[in-house]
Design a protein that fits this description.
heterodimer, A: 202 residues, two-stranded antiparallel sheet, B: 1220 residues, alpha+beta, 6-stranded antiparallel sheet, 5-stranded antiparallel sheet, ARM-like (chain B), AP-3 complex subunit delta-1 isoform X3 (chain B), repeat (chain B)
């Protein structure tokens, strides 16, 4: 396994991909060349795909990342898998809750998040993640605080006129017309996920 | 310009944004790659435009493509451009792209330093935040070094949002630039008590992670963490702290004792499963570290096991999994408590979840005993049969082998059973682990001599049915076992029942389809077999049969000679010739068996992998000594062994000659043998196999081989392992009966015990024994089992003693207009971060009281861990050297009080109360301590006051200056923190010049980074009522030493002092000098000119001075270990010189402290009144000193790589010493 020398991180990688293995968010906290990253995503996808929804959310020995000290901890929401690769310094249940915090934050920020939001706003998802995890370390677990910071930054961006100026918007609105219809299917509110002791963390 | 802008935004109308790109890719499913490459071309065009918005948009799209696996490093420079945009929107895009694709190999990354620094100090918190986030992903050692100071400043930012990010990123900085850890640590520690929970949590996070890697350096923080643990309500923080305690307890068992109670309380009270789980984990760690000596910890174990059982029984698979995980930790030390839950764990083997099954398997590994091994393996074997999917089945297979072979097969009582299990495993289809089974077969057959006969019979059967094993390509992995089978049959052919049949089996044409390395073994072992058959036949005088065998070989071997595998071919043709030769001899009627079997005479003994490492170097053998005379240089002098210091006896030189007389050696060898013979613990060479065979019970139970042909795919002639289970039962039963009989006999006449027929592990005598250590380890093998630490561990660099006071050289590099590497007066160490504003009044002027208070605070912080940990006062807790009666009284009172507390403590159940007591007790003792301290402090204060006015060379408090290793035994616990506190007010500034207006003191500091540069720190103190301004300092440069002047100025221009001095104020300015040679002291003439302005008007004043560059100022305190020091001295490259000073009354310790402080040495080793010291010059000269104190004299012997430097240094030292 070509693994570059360098210190390992507490959270080594955060991957989000859909039921078909299409990456929606790829965030490595350790350097891997792009093709290796893709390989890791594929392999991780095949590992979690095999697993039923009613078995445990921990996977050992993701052969590509880390080694014995590392675990894959994942959650499956509707069409998306959220996978964290962490070392033993992280509490397993804690990370499960963190995933939940992350997804709930996404849900708040996108107002009923669905896979399409992640597809078209990968940058925004990254910005949200950056408020939760920084450089492989848990930064904030309080959802209200995370949302507040994100909204503040969005306001700042709006005051600057945003990334795409108004004319570009108009054009893309026209382009929008022949967009294939994709149902929104991530809806956290409706999903019934058992989260042990989430309230303890929020 | 405006036009360009307009044009830019019109262009933009036709640019794709991220959404368009995504949409486009989705609409081009068939030719995605083509579409994307088209988009990349567009992006390249966009990046060429001047409009930053266009660029940002392009970079944003690139980030998306990166996720899809496209390398975007080619755009690194554009990314940096976007990072430096002024708008937050764009900046954020740039930093995101950078965090996704920058790494240490990105060459343009060094261009970002200034941009990041700018963003870090941006007034907008989100600019700062985005820079911190980005940096956390791509920080390099260079960036870490350059920005460490800026980030450290941010740790005290007003916004908690920035603080928490800054705290968190420090961990990355430490990893990349370990030197920053010590200077930054005090502030990091402060953040543990930050009012904002997020910042606090970040600090806990970082410190926990640091401590996890190098726990011993963080033990002193335990009290603080304990406080946090009992006060925090944030579960994230609690989990981290509890995890940290788990890492700390192995180092300090007393800490564990203290933890048990609050942790068990938490276990009982918390509703958060994650917290409960971590508590259980840490309690387990504590129990492991205590392992003995705690009377009631079985209750804690019971509690843990109970809780874990609840987790395992939970319907939530995650909890089940974690419960099993934690259970396996308990298992290591308290197997008994886990073994009682065997039912539960075996049940988990049937779980539908593979992760859980694997965990349960892990547990089984530790749960087996001699008693239940067979039963458990039997259960596993049924799982092997059931298991669908090869991965899990392979896992089972390896587990079975692991379980059986663990710690030298200690749980196996019957190796026949084990061999049968291995043989049964060969029937697994498609396993990848054939080689594992083969290795086990070989291992057992070689090491368990008693089993060879049985093993050989099994292996020959296996060879016979090799067609089954090797038939389909699918079973390729398993054919590895044939390798083992062939070797065993060949090597131990004397045990074969029907060697000829086996020989034929090995020569079948089918064999040539096996992999080459197996065929090679076949060929080799065919000859071994042949040799033994020959011998048999010749002994039976059956020449015909012998010739037949030879003929068989001559016929069959050619099929191997044609093999494509070189190894097989070579062996076969060689052997074929040999056999043909034998055939000729046989034809002549010559007996050949002896000679043929001589080819394979002797036994191959197993050798443990670490054997060589463990052979101690015999006495009298010097591996580094030359065997022959070393090649001599032209100068014969060099060959002479040199004394380290001239008057020392040449004791350390190699006197031992390799050619010590033979007699002596023989005598020693004999003595050693004698000693070994008498040593009951020395394992002698093993007794003969025959003897052991008879010794071992159970061999007579070798089962009658049952042939069960009805079962398909069963290797015929193989006994089923199940039989052994029954047989083993019987055997044990018989053993037990015998034992009972014996016991009964013994008990006759005695009082009758109610002896329960319990069967402990020890009672089961194994049928065969593995005899391993005996033969595989060389004579005199050392029993150590240490394995070296991995030298590549990135965390090793962070193994840094944090309690040591900061040295001058450890400051973080600060960006400054002048001399970046400047080192300041030690007082500033405590505030090493902020760029000093020149107006800021000097710290030195702090009132003594204030300083005192600070010292107290430090003392408290460094509060002895021992003290905190000791729940009952240790007998000699507060020993004060030669206490005055008063002090004695105080300490007694403390002790009494402690005892009182201790008693009360036991009565109290409530844990909170206990905490209060702890604190109360602590503070009460503190008060006492304070009193004592203050008393001691007073005389010191006077000295300090004096020093402030007078030249520093005369201060008598030198012992405070530099930490030297002071032997602490008998003086009570002296912590490093004490040293820090007492070293606070030191100063090495000496007077440069003085007149009625101004007093100038200076100090010269060198730094390792610059080998020809020193910094002169000048403190200017306005002593008049005038306002001093326009100060300028100039010196007359010498050839060797030059002052660094601003660009464009000549040598005649002075360097302006960057501040003005109001009346009574002092400030410090720094000037850089470049030096070529440092071996001689230098004096430079100079002038300070300034304008003094008062009510009456302004005058232009001048003050002349002579700046003395002593050689000592070029030295840098560098610690040196004694072995490195000895090596240095023995290297023989050093010049030698010495001085002697009479009439010295100062204590040796103070003397050393003085040398350390004024001449920048560190003590390497001190023995009585003799000490070795070391220092290094900025140009890399090593300077070694041996300081000896006589009655009233001190002699200093020095060695240095430069003779001139040494004599200059010694001269300087003489002056210092003369003042003592």
């Amino acid at each position: 396994m070509p693994r570059e020398a360098g210190p390992a991180k507490m959270i080594q990688a955060i991957l989000v991909f859909n039921n078909h293995g299409k990456p929606r968010l790829v965030r490595f906290y350790q350097r891997f060349p792009e093709e290796i990253q893709q390989q890791i995503v594929r392999e991780t996808f095949h590992l979690v795909l095999k697993r039923d929804d009613n078995i445990c959310n921990f996977l050992e020995g993701g052969s590509l990342i880390g080694g014995a000290d590392y675990k894959l901890i994942y959650r499956h929401y509707a069409t998306l898998y959220f996978v964290f690769c962490v070392d033993s310094s992280e509490s397993e249940l804690g990370i499960l809750d963190l995933i939940q915090v992350f997804v709930e934050t996404l849900d708040k920020c996108f107002e009923n998040v669905c896979e399409l939001d992640l597809i078209f706003h990968m940058d925004k998802v990254h910005y949200i993640l950056q408020e939760v995890v920084m450089g492989g370390m848990v930064l904030e677990t309080n959802m209200n605080e995370i949302v507040a910071q994100i909204e503040a930054q969005n306001r700042l961006e709006k005051s600057e006129g945003g990334l795409s100026a108004a004319p570009a918007r108009a054009v893309s609105a026209v382009k929008n017309i022949n967009l294939p219809e994709i149902p929104r299917n991530i809806n956290i509110g409706d999903l019934n996920i058992k989260v042990p002791n989430l309230s303890q963390f929020v | 310009m405006a036009l360009k802008m307009v044009k830019g935004s019109i262009d933009r109308m036709f640019d794709k944004n991220l959404q368009d790109l995504v949409r486009g890719i989705r609409n081009h499913k068939e030719d995605e790659a083509k579409y994307i490459s088209q988009c990349i071309d567009e992006i390249k065009q966009e990046l060429k435009q001047d409009n930053i918005a266009v660029k940002a948009n392009a970079v944003c799209k690139l980030t998306y493509l990166q996720m899809l696996g496209y390398d975007i490093s080619w755009a690194a420079f554009n990314i940096i451009e976007v990072m430096s945009a002024s708008k937050f929107t764009f900046k954020r895009v740039g930093y995101l792209a950078a965090s996704q694709c920058f790494h240490e190999g990105t060459d343009v990354i060094m261009l970002t330093t200034n941009q990041i620094r700018k963003d870090l100090s941006s007034p907008s918190q989100y600019d700062t935040g985005v820079a911190l986030t980005g940096l956390s992903c791509f920080v390099t050692p260079d960036l870490a070094r350059d920005l460490a100071n800026d980030i450290m400043t941010l740790m005290s930012h007003t916004k908690p949002y920035i603080r928490k990010k800054a705290v968190l990123i420090m961990y990355k900085v430490f990893l990349k630039y370990p030197e920053s850890l010590r200077p930054a640590f005090p502030r990091l520690k402060e953040k543990l008590e930050d009012p904002d929970p997020g910042v606090q949590s970040a600090a806990v996070n970082v410190i926990c992670e640091l401590a996890r890697r190098n726990p011993k350096n963080y033990l002193s923080l335990a009290p603080l963490f304990f406080k946090l643990m009992t006060s925090s309500t944030n579960n994230w923080v609690l989990i981290k702290i509890i995890k940290l305690f788990g890492a700390l307890t192995p180092l300090e068992p007393r800490l564990g004792k203290k933890l048990i109670e609050p942790l068990t309380n938490l276990i009982h009270s918390t509703s958060a499963m994650s917290l409960l789980y971590e508590c259980v984990n840490t309690v387990i760690a504590v129990l492991i570290s205590l392992s003995s000596g705690m009377p009631n910890h079985s209750a804690s174990i019971q509690l843990c096991v109970q809780k874990l059982r609840i987790l395992i029984e939970d319907s939530d698979q995650n909890l089940k999994y974690l419960g099993l995980l934690a259970m396996s930790k308990i298992l290591k030390t308290h197997p008994k408590s886990v073994q009682s839950h065997k039912d539960l764990i075996l049940q988990c083997l049937d779980d539908k979840d593979e992760s859980i099954r694997l965990r349960a398997l892990d547990l089984l590994y530790g749960m087996v005993s001699k008693k239940n091994l067979m039963e458990i393996v039997k259960k596993l074997m049924t799982h092997v049969d059931k298991a669908e999917g090869t991965t899990y089945r392979d896992e089972l297979l390896t587990k079975i082998i692991d379980i059986c072979s663990q710690s030298n097969y200690q749980h196996i009582t019957n190796f026949e059973w084990y061999i049968s299990i291995l043989v049964e495993l060969t029937r697994l289809e498609g396993t990848r682990h054939g080689h594992l089974i083969a290795a086990q077969m070989l291992d057992v057959a070689i090491r368990v001599k008693a089993i060879r006969k049985f093993a050989v019979s099994q292996m020959s059967a296996l060879l016979d049915s090799a067609h089954l094993v090797a038939s389909s390509t699918q079973r390729n992995g398993i054919c590895e076992v044939l390798y083992a089978a062939a070797w065993i049959c060949g090597e131990f052919s004397e045990h074969l029942q029907e060697p000829q049949q086996t020989l034929e089996a090995m020569l079948r044409p089918k064999v040539t389809t096996l992999p080459g390395h197996i065929q090679a073994v076949y060929v080799q072992n065919v000859v071994k077999l042949y040799a033994s058959i020959l011998q048999q036949k010749e002994q039976a005088a059956d020449t015909e049969a012998a010739q037949e065998v030879t003929q068989l070989l001559v016929e069959r071997l050619p099929q191997f000679v044609q093999s494509a595998d070189l190894e097989v071919q070579e062996r076969a043709s060689c052997i074929l010739q040999l056999v043909k030769h034998v055939q000729k001899l046989q034809a002549k009627g010559v007996p050949v068996a002896e000679e043929v079997s001589a080819l394979f005479a002797g036994e191959l003994n197993p050798v443990a992998p670490k054997a060589q490492k463990k052979v101690p170097v015999p006495e009298g053998l010097d591996l580094d000594a030359w065997i022959n005379e070393p090649p001599s240089d032209s100068e014969s002098e060099d060959e002479k062994p040199k004394a380290i210091f001239h008057e020392e006896e040449p004791r350390h030189t190699r006197r031992r000659q390799p050619e010590e007389d033979e007699e002596e050696l023989a005598r020693r060898r004999e003595a050693r043998k004698q000693e070994q013979a008498n040593n009951p613990f020395y394992i002698k060479s093993s007794p003969s196999p025959q003897k052991r065979y008879q010794d071992t019970p159970g061999v007579e139970h070798i089962p009658v081989v049952q042939i069960d042909l009805s079962v398909p795919l069963k290797v015929p002639g193989m006994p089923m392992s199940d039989q052994y289970v029954k047989l083993e039962e019987q055997r044990r039963h018989r053993q037990r009966m015998e034992k009972d009989k014996k016991r009964k006999k013994k008990e006759k006449g005695k009082r009758r015990h109610s002896s329960l027929p319990t069967e402990s592990d020890e009672d089961i005598a194994p049928a065969q024994r593995v005899d391993i250590v005996t033969e595989e380890m060389p004579e005199n093998a050392l029993p150590s089992d240490e394995d070296d630490k991995d030298p590549n561990d990135p965390y090793r660099a962070l193994d840094i003693d944090l309690d040591k006071p900061l040295a001058d050289s450890e400051k973080l590099p600060v960006q400054k207009h002048r001399n970046a590497e400047a080192v300041k007066s030690p007082e500033k160490e405590s505030v090493p971060t902020v760029e000093k504003k020149s107006k800021k009044p000097k710290k030195k002027e702090k009132k003594p009281k204030e300083r005192e208070r600070e010292k107290k605070k430090k003392d408290k912080k460094g509060e002895d861990l021992d003290f905190w940990l000791s729940t009952t006062p240790p007998p000699a807790a507060v020993p004060v050297p030669a206490p005055s009666t008063e002090e004695l009284a105080v300490s007694t009172v403390t002790l009494v009080k402690d005892e009182g507390e201790g008693l009360r403590r036991e009565e109290l159940e409530d844990e909170d109360d206990n905490m209060d007591h702890d604190q109360e007790r602590k503070s009460s003792r503190h008060k006492k301590k304070k009193h004592r301290k203050e008393k001691e402090e007073r005389p010191r204060d006077k000295k300090k006051a004096k020093r402030k006015q007078a030249a520093p060379l005369e201060n008598g408090a030198a012992e405070e200056e530099e930490p030297i290793p002071i032997p602490t035994n008998g003086q009570g616990p002296v912590t490093a923190a004490d040293v820090i506190s007492s070293s606070q007010p030191m100063s090495s500034y000496c007077l440069l010049a003085e007149n009625s207006y101004i007093k100038v003191t200076y100090d010269i500091q060198a730094s390792l980074q610059k080998d020809s540069q020193v910094t002169v720190s000048v403190i200017l103190e306005n002593q008049s009522n005038s306002f001093l301004k326009n100060m300028e300092l100039n010196v007359l440069d010498s050839l060797n030493t030059k002052m660094a002047r601003p660009e464009g100025s000549t040598v005649h221009d002075g360097v302006p002092v960057p501040f003005q001095l109001p009346p009574g104020v002092s400030n410090e300015a720094q000037f850089v000098f470049t030096i070529q040679s440092i071996v001689m002291a230098q004096k430079l003439k100079g002038t300070l000119s300034f304008i003094a302005k008062d009510d009456e008007g302004a005058t232009h004043e001048k003050l002349d001075f002579r700046l003395h560059f002593s050689c000592s100022s070029y030295l840098i305190t560098t610690p040196c270990y004694s072995d490195a020091f000895a090596k240095l001295l023995e290297s023989g490259d050093l010049n030698m010189n010495s001085i002697k000073v009479d009439g010295i009354s100062m204590s040796f310790q103070n003397l050393l402290a003085k040398i350390c402080f004024h001449h920048h040495f560190s003590v390497v080793e001190r023995v009585d009144s003799c000490a070795s010291m070391y220092s290094r010059s900025i140009q890399g000269h090593h300077v070694c000193l041996l300081v000896k104190k006589g009655e009233s004299s001190v002699s200093v012997d020095g060695k240095c790589s430069d003779a001139t430097l040494l004599s200059s240094l010694l001269e300087e030292m003489k002056t210092t010493l003369a003042q003592c």
